[in-house]
């Protein structure tokens, strides 16, 4: 016989003994259902009330009708639904349709007077068509078998019922496994105390390593703030983000589950449960810092690939990229900030009893899908696309444009550094995304397994017809937490060089160079002008210029090989910059005007010492007129035979003038 159900709350069936051994007969405590032919019932009842207290509250509207005895059948009919007779386990004895119809017809008018409507889930058409009293004699006999349609054995999946121990105040807005006002057990649903201790210490050690590496990168930048310019400057901000991420995980290790879990309190929490929402201020702060800087670090990596793309494809120079710094900062900090505020408004914060921090998506699959996986996957896709385009463009420059062997080596070295850094970032990040996807896929199976293992402990319905059970492996969580922190360590490989060692040695010993060069930017070797290297003829000598300490004057649209300068600046030079250079060169002009210069003797020096005589009249770069070694102080020398000199600064000379020069000075 098929019995129709009016709603999802209608229960017309029950478990077999094997599927739910925890349910047993319990004494009837409902005041309305005392002194019946039976005195035991079971919960949940036929209207899906979890316990007798809930059933008693639902019966309150019918008390006036029962007290006035509008129908002799009403009390029995109500008790058949709210406190059904407990028969052989796995059997449900339902009232007949005739009993329902008599109670409804006789009490209909009185119910209208009291303003009580007949509930839809008590519709008489939903009951078996029979005319027998309730309970039947067979229902009162232990071990009897049902003989007709009014009592039948049916199996059903109840779903998850929130245990009494995990119920919380409705005002907190908690939810767990689709049930409102319910929270997950703390510290973990899946691991025992010994496993949790190992995972926590593992996270603590890795967080210390990551914090040390990223903090070293940031402090190296602070020692020499002008060393790392665009396109590599985003690496510094990326390191700052993971300083904060590793710091939060380290604090979570120290605090254990004191922040991520609610302590037991008689008035609010019957058991230790996972913190949700923003009512815990420290947990909210942990979430804001951890989520904001995790997303910001991912965005800064995308910006790093954008700056590399601008330098490699449209051939932007450092200054041109730096002009967009305000936009970069607005995007890198603004987008994660907007996501963080949105999650706070949606009250999606969840405590992580394993690591001791607070994040999102630990129990809410939708939050994990849209606020963690989607942003990370989008950033990876955009970053990898820009990275590949930039590498292809630089490789085309290396293959098609003739460069000196020195420049070729530096360009290849820079491309290798860029590729290795990107791999060191992408491998951990992709591993984290893979762990999240694995969690997203198997979370429902893990929860079903947890229900099956704990339903008897919490006295809740056990899952019915479980086809697959599985628990998460501890190594999966170890890999996830490891990669979440290791992803910040590659920044230290970018700053690791001899230059960094020299700077730290000088800083720790308190030494400062006093040779007139900006102490925050030690340029120890002249570098070739890569833009001129690309534009010159194959047989034209390379024109070298003094880079000095200025961060200005770089061509707005420099050659792509200018990226190699970034790599070259970290190498110490073997020769010291000539002190006769004064941020540029003295060039001779080709006009016929004659002029007279008054040279002072060796006792009166220029900014960088005395000026030696020019070896060639057409010197074009980084040279000064030499004075005869026997000239006396204060004497004047007629130099009208030679063209007057013009003081220039590095790149200010035009390409046409450079082409007219016939030789270069060292």
Describe the model.
With 666 residues, the chain is mainly α. Helix content is 43%, strand content 4%. It is built from 17 helices and twelve strands. It has helices at residues 52-59, 63-67, 74-82, 97-113, 193-223, 234-255, 281-312, 318-322, 325-346, 365-400, 405-458, 474-486, 491-495, 498-509, 530-535, 563-568, 655-660, and strands spanning 26-27, 40-41, 92-93, 151-152, 175-176, 179-180, 261-262, 273-274, 350-351, 358-359, 585-588, 645-648. It has a two-stranded antiparallel sheet with strand order 1-2. A two-stranded antiparallel ribbon has the order 3-4. A hairpin with a 6-residue loop joins strand 9 and strand 10. Helix 5 packs parallel to helix 12 (474-486), helix 6 (234-255) packs antiparallel against helix 7 and helix 10 packs antiparallel against helix 11. The protein is elongated, with a radius of gyration of 40 Å. The N and C termini lie far apart (104 Å). The relative contact order is 0.08.
């Amino acid at each position: 016989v098929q019995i129709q159900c009016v709603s999802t709350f209608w229960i017309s069936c029950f478990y077999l003994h094997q599927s739910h051994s925890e349910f047993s007969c319990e004494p009837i405590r409902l005041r309305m259902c005392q002194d019946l032919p039976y005195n035991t019932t079971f919960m949940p009842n036929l209207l899906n009330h979890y316990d007798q207290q809930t059933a008693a509250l639902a019966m309150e509207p019918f008390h006036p009708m029962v007290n006035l005895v509008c129908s002799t059948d009403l009390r029995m009919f109500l008790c058949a639904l709210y406190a059904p007779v407990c028969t052989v386990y796995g059997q449900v004895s339902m009232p007949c349709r005739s009993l329902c119809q008599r109670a409804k017809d006789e009490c209909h008018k009185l119910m209208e007077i009291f303003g009580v409507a007949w509930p839809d889930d008590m519709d008489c058409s939903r009951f078996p068509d029979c005319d027998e009293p309730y309970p039947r004699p067979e229902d009162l006999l232990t071990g009897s078998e049902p003989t007709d349609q009014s009592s039948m054995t049916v199996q059903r999946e109840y779903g998850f019922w929130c245990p009494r121990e995990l119920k919380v105040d409705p005002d907190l807005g908690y939810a767990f496994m689709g049930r409102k006002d319910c929270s997950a057990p703390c510290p973990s649903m899946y691991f025992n105390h010994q496993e949790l201790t190992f995972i926590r210490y593992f996270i603590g050690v890795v967080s210390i390593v990551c914090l040390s590496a990223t903090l070293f990168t940031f402090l190296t930048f602070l020692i020499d703030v002008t060393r790392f310019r665009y396109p590599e400057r985003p690496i510094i901000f990326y390191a700052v983000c993971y300083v904060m991420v590793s710091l939060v995980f380290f604090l979570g290790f120290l605090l254990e589950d004191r922040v991520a879990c609610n302590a037991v309190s008689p008035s609010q929490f019957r058991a230790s449960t996972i913190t949700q929402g923003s009512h815990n201020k420290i947990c909210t702060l942990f979430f804001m810092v951890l989520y904001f800087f995790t997303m910001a670090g991912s965005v800064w990596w995308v910006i790093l690939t954008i700056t590399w793309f601008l330098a490699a494809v449209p051939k932007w120079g450092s200054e041109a990229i730096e002009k967009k710094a305000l936009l970069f900062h607005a995007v890198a900090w603004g987008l994660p900030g907007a996501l963080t505020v949105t999650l706070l408004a949606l009250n999606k914060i969840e405590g992580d009893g394993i690591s001791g921090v607070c994040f999102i998506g630990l129990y809410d699959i939708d939050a994990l899908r849209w606020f963690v996986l989607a942003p990370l996957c989008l950033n990876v896709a955009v970053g990898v696309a820009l990275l590949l385009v930039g590498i292809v463009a630089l490789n085309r420059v290396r293959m098609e444009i003739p460069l000196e062997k020195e420049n070729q080596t530096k360009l290849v070295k820079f491309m290798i550094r860029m590729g290795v850094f990107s791999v060191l970032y992408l491998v951990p990040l992709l591993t984290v995304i893979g762990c999240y996807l694995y969690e997203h896929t198997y979370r429902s199976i893990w929860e079903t397994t947890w229900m099956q293992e704990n339903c008897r402990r919490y006295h809740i319905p056990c899952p019915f017809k479980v086809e697959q059970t599985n628990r998460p492996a501890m190594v999966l969580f170890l890999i996830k937490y490891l990669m979440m922190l290791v992803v910040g360590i590659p920044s230290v490989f970018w700053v690791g060089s001899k230059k960094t060692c020299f700077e730290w040695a000088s800083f720790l010993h308190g030494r400062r160079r006093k040779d007139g060069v900006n102490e925050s930017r030690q340029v120890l070797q002249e570098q070739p002008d890569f833009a001129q290297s690309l534009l010159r003829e194959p047989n034209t000598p390379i024109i070298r210029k003094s880079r000095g300490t200025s961060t200005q004057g770089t061509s707005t649209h420099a050659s792509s090989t200018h990226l190699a300068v970034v790599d070259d600046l970290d190498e110490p030079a073997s020769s010291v910059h000539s002190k006769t250079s004064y941020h540029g060169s003295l060039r001779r002009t080709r006009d016929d005007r004659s002029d007279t210069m008054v040279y002072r003797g060796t006792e009166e020096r220029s900014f960088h010492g005395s000026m030696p005589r020019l070896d060639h009249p057409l010197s074009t770069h980084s040279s000064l007129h030499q004075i005869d070694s026997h000239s006396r102080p204060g004497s004047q020398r007629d130099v009208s035979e030679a063209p007057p000199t013009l003081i220039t600064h590095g790149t200010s000379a035009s390409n046409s003038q450079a082409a007219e020069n016939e030789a270069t000075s060292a």
